[in-house]
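Suppose you are handed a protein chain with no further information: no name, no annotation, nothing but its sequence. What can you learn? This example shows the usual starting point.
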Amino acid sequence: MTIRVFLLDDHEVVRRGVAALLESESDIEIVGEAATAAHAIARIPAVRPDVAVLDVRLPDGDGVSVCREIRSRLPGLACLMLTSFSDEEALFDAVMAGAAGYVLKQIHGSDLVAAVRTVASGQSLLDPHSTAQMLHRLRERQTRKDPLSTLSDQERQILELIGEGLTNRQIGERLFLAEKTVKNYVSNLFTKLDMRRRTQAAAFVAQLKAAGDRSRDE
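A reasonable first move is to predict its three-dimensional structure. Written in structure tokens, the prediction is:
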């Protein structure tokens, strides 16, 4: 089975080099090329490749946007992002756009060929380090969206009681916990929320309640 490949790169020398490299393989065929995002978006649906090798940085946009747009029309298309930069932000955006792989232009020719075959077969091509970066970013975004997501149920309950103005001893009596245990919980939740004082926690709880009241009113 021949793998049909489309190339998008604004550098003609790079594009021709990659095309020559891939076409030297008996199972790979270059079915189209583009130097701009607009040209790629217009051409790719017409030639219907199996794999699109997309440069991340383009004069009129970026390969991530092309990936997102084209995959909305051709969900079965495997997009392999090719860039000169080890850019964590671009990696995250590419994966969220549905890219099957992400490689640097410094990659060896044989490895690029292997990468094209890998994504063409339906597999993902993300090395463990890149995957770890992506998961870290996802966790960071989730934490920014919901600061309480890192807290356990017990820590959330204790935070609410701090917001009510209770001391560690009073919280312990309410939850049937030793005062020292409560102190440990408080220390942990302060670390997770990057706080130092109970007044910060109380103000934070008040803000959360106010935000909840506003959302209910809306």
